[in-house]
Amino acid sequence: MIKLLSNLDELHVYIRNRDLEIYNNINPDEKKAALAIQDITEIANASTRAIYRILKDRVILFYFQIKTKFFFNM
């Protein structure tokens, strides 16, 4: 049991270090968005980055759809 708990502690440290490494390599806008999503939903860093990227892609797609409709309706 002690061995298993020791392995679990090592895994926790490894995951925390990778999370910090990833966080330090993302751009400032993604950091702000990730923190805002975390504050609202209280979810983990990896999940917030995934949500941010999905939302960003959808907003860009929506913007171009509106722009295209406006252009062709003139």
UniProtKB/TrEMBL annotation:
Domain of life (superkingdom): Bacteria
Descriptive protein name: Uncharacterized protein
